[in-house]
Amino acid sequence: MNYNIVPLNELINQFSRLPGVGKKTAQRLAFSILEQPNEFAKQFANALIDAREKIHFCKTCQALTDLEVCQICDNPQRDHSVVCVVEDPKDVMAIERTREYNGVYHVLHGVISPLDGVTPDKLKIKELMARLSSGEINELIMATNPTVEGEATASYISRLVKPMGIKVTRLAYGIPVGGDLEYADEFTLARSLEGRNEI
């Protein structure tokens, strides 16, 4: 017997297109939606449509916002002389959760990866250089991921910025809190030794 409900299958297919969502998870999500009241489904659909129609890149930092300029860039309490360069809008949220950083951001929307066809002109580097030319920025914190592509991107931007006399720093990284040395790879241990601080 063939049990085929076209709208349900379409809902499952749409959920399974999301990153990290397999067929079984998509099926659970679809059934969960069907178990909710109609009002919930309408609110859920409206939230999706609103997010797609209203969210765009901040004209200053390229992070996501529903305003012309995001709340971080628009906040006079933030230190606008320090810019933290990140790969992705999710990285802004991660750093903000620490409540330790009071500067502003610039989102590249990726990293240089020639094998994947991502060249510097496909990132938001031109927009970053335009910001730096204002003369108001004293420090650039490179917070790209510690991958080959993240390191290459940080080095590329650093070479562009150095002649401007702007200080370029890199996030420290190494052994995570609660981690064991015996499980750390050589690269992580080497970086931990290089980035050690006086206590």
Write a structural description:
The chain is α/β, with parallel strands linked by helices. The protein has two domains: 1-37, Helicase, Ruva Protein, domain 3, CATH 1.10.8.420; 78-199, Dna Topoisomerase Vi A Subunit, Chain: A, domain 2. Helices cover 41% and strands 13% of the residues. The chain contains seven helices and six strands, in the order H-H-H-E-E-E-H-E-H-E-H-E-H. The protein has helices spanning 6-16, 23-35, 38-54, 89-98, 125-132, 148-161, 186-194; strands at 56-57, 64-65, 79-86, 103-107, 139-142, 167-170. The strands form two sheets. A four-stranded parallel β-sheet has the order 4-3-5-6. Strands 1-2 form a two-stranded antiparallel ribbon. It is globular, with a radius of gyration of 22 Å.
Number of domains: 2
Strand content: 5-15%
- Biggest beta sheet attributes: 4 strands, parallel
CA gyration radius, whole angstroms? 22 Å
> Please, how many helices?
7
Secondary-structure class = alpha/beta
Element-by-element helix/strand order = HHHEEEHEHEHEH
Named CATH topology of the largest domain? Dna Topoisomerase Vi A Subunit, Chain: A, domain 2
User: What would the average pLDDT be, to the nearest integer?
Assistant: 91
Helix content: 40-55%
Strand order in the sheet with the most strands: 4-3-5-6
Uncertain residue segments: none
Distance between the termini: 70 Å
Please count the beta strands (DSSP E, at least 2 residues each): 6
Name of the CATH first level of the largest domain = Alpha Beta
